[in-house]
Amino acid sequence: MTSQSREMELRRTEWAVLVILVVLSRLVRVHAVSYRVRPESLAVREGQTATLRCAFLGLTSQSVVFWEGPPNFAVISTGREVDPRYPRHRIIGDPERGEYHLEIKDVNIREEGGYRCSTLGLTEKAEVTLNVVVPMKKPPEIKGRDVTFTAGQPMTLTCVATEGNPLPRLRWFNATKLLQQTNQNAMAEVVPSVSLDLVIPEVARWDHGKNVTCVADQGYPDLTTNMAASTILNVHYPPIVRSRRQTLRVSEGETLDLSCDVDSNPQAAVSWRKVDGDIPGNAEIRGNELRLPKLSRTAAGGYRCLANNGILPSGEGSVTLIVLYPPSITSGFEDKTSALAGGEGFSLRCEAEGYPKPRVRWRRKGTKLYFDNPLEFTQIDYDMEGDYECVASNGQIRNAVRHTFVDVIGKPYINTVSLKVSVRSGDTARLVCEILSDPLPEETRWLRRGPGQQDKPVTASQRPGIRQEERSSASGVTNTLVISHVGRSDGGVYVCETTNTFGTFQREFHMDVKATNTQAVVIASVTVIVLLILFATIFICIAKRTGLTERVRREKASTSDLTLPRALPPLPSYMVPVGSDLGDGLEMQDFKGTLKPRPPPRTDLEPYSIGLSYPSLMHPLPPYSTVERQRPDGEDNMLDSPYLEDPWETEGFVMPPSVPPKHCADKGINAITQC
Fold first, then answer.
1. Backbone phi, psi, residue 54, to 5°
2. Does the pLDDT value for residue 189 go beyond 50?
3. H or E stretch including 216?
4. Which domain of life does the UniProt lineage start with (predicted)?
5. How many Cα atoms occupy the beta-carbon half-sphere of 128 within 13 Å?
6. Is 268 helix (H, G, I), strand (E, B) or coil?
7. For the chain, how are helix, strand and coil distributed in percent, rounded to 5?
8. What pLDDT does residue 176 have?
9. Residue 317 shares a structural domain with residue 339
């Protein structure tokens, strides 16, 4: 039986069932029926068991439940009976609860489609879909992955998936960045497939090495896993040259490696050349590096690195090499230079080379005094003669130094500072004439200037005791005129005259002879001695008048009482109390809370006898307080006198006037001193 005849037979059966249902519906009273479990669409992986759930409310014993399915909603089951054409199908569930679940074992792609669970009396039939998922067996394919692209040109990659049910959705990623996911094309061929293009209108060098991935997703993460295919872009681009440093500074004698960083695909060939000359003969090229051993100053200049890989334009980089080297003096001045004394505009220039450009200065040898370059003197004299050094420095390890001797030549010059000499009569006079001269003086003589500016030579024949002393030095000679036993007639003006090949020079010396006065010295000495004696006398009087001497003596006595462990002397007879061991008549007084003996009545004794003999019993009195002072009524006022207290212990004490009492005024100087 052919498939066409079988299909026609199936349709006849379906029509017969429908007729029977119509007849039954007219004969049987229909009750209201509804879904207790409404069927839902289901996705299941191929080979697994699919269960489509369906349950009703309001079914009767005459109710019949139908399951219809692919193809074209063919009747699969009536009630709990399944058509024999579906051997892997069955109805499960509790009939008493109205459950008519359809179970399909070992599901394949043919069972995918629409299903319907229904019965008579339903106003709406629920239609659901069974999706049978067939996982992909291999990842998608990328077409064009082996193509090499050139920078600046367009690039297209195609991702194709030909397996799986449903066909996957394709997406392009660069790492985790989504590049493209639209424009997916499904191709209706013998084998269904889907494709997605990745298009870059103009590829660039930074696209080289990118990892792009095509991801295929079937949309059922619980049933299948995504599959992906990746490729790394291969983009050809011209070389890009980068120099690590534009300028290099290296000291002379060192070894330098010049490097050239080249970015290109494919790899570029690198060459080197010098901009302003030839590369040093000892240079070595090592790939992208140029080694320059033992640099010399001639290696300085610009260097260019050229890179070529067949893709235009070629790459080029440059670096400037600066070779540092210490200074050297290039001037050709002589070791000895002559200058004319008294001349003007002397100049000496020093030239030097080095890198950095050296600073050139002059200095006097053995000093730290520097002069600018050129060395210039506006007025030349013999003080400028000496060794000079040209010093060139540029911050390197050593400086360049070159010496020259400035030789000042010309007529002599007398450099004596002291031109006035003062000497006492009878002493020896020395007139020193310091002569700077190159060449040395041929003749030096002394002249004495007389009236009318007439100069006469001074010679030893004029009088005994005249002579000349001469000694040579590095810069000239020193000629000294010595005159012994100088008299008043030897005073006046003397002239030192010196001559050499270039001319003659003179300098005046003034000698003043002073007389010796012995009497004046004696008078001055006596005057000094008298003044010293007078000052000493005045000082002693002032000390006694102010009590300074007495206070010093009392302090010494008090210190002696405190420090020496000796017994006190006996009291005078008038101070011994009557009827006691000490005697009678000793009167005590209260002085600031302390009992002290009252002073005895005035006698002819020395007023300080008590204080000197008994310093611990009597408060010391100042010198001017020994005079009795009378009250107006004639009573003794001595105990009430404020002068009885020690002025150094009495708060707010004021010194009395230094005027002696009346009873001391007629006793003479000694009495006044004692008062």
1. -160, 130
2. yes
3. strand 211-217
4. Eukaryota
5. 21
6. coil
7. 15, 40, 40
8. 82
9. no
